[in-house]
């Protein structure tokens, strides 16, 4: 696509939104002492129990080795625990601890508030158009599919 005033304007707005979301997300994660990857893992485990480490690797689109390191860190911070799998002795169920559940639920609330703050007053048709355009860009760039309700 050629460099035009329209593409420059679109990119400028995309950067502005990205900077806003990045700074608000980082501030929220600092409250809990979590990285982006750890936050995503907690939210997936909160919303999709029971989950094995292999399941988590699949939804995070990373290797089982990376998830092992991620779960190790979340276990050390008191957010997750590994429970024995009921039928596969080689696998573990990744479960939230009380702290993990509390923090993940609070993070989800903060994300819902951020969505409200960002999109409040945007007409439904404009929001639907935004999602359609974002989906085209995500698909075109082979990015992670959108998280449906986070």
Summary keywords:
8% strand, 6 helices, mainly alpha, 67% helix, Arc Repressor Mutant, subunit A
CATH C-level category of the domain at 18-120: Mainly Alpha
Instruction: Name the strands of the widest sheet in spatial order.
Output: 1-3-2
CATH topology of the domain at 18-120: Arc Repressor Mutant, subunit A
Arithmetic mean pLDDT: 89
- Structural class of the secondary structure composition? mainly alpha
Helix and strand run: HHEHHEEHH
**How many DSSP H or I helices?**
6
Percent helix range: 55-70%
| Biggest sheet statistics | 3 strands, antiparallel
What does this structure look like?
The chain has 150 residues and is mainly alpha-helical. It contains six helices and three strands. It has helices at residues 5-32, 36-47, 53-60, 64-76, 98-119, 124-140, and strands at residues 51-52, 80-84, 92-96. Helix 2 packs across helix 5 and helix 3 packs across helix 4.
Entry summary:
The chain is mainly alpha-helical and 150 residues long. It has helices at residues 5-32, 36-47, 53-60, 64-76, 98-119, 124-140; strands spanning 51-52, 80-84, 92-96. The two termini are 32 Å apart.
SSE arrangement:
Blueprint: H1 5-32, H2 36-47, E1 51-52, H3 53-60, H4 64-76, E2 80-84, E3 92-96, H5 98-119, H6 124-140
Antiparallel strand pairs: 1-3, 2-3
Helix pairs in contact: 1-5, 2-4, 2-5, 3-4
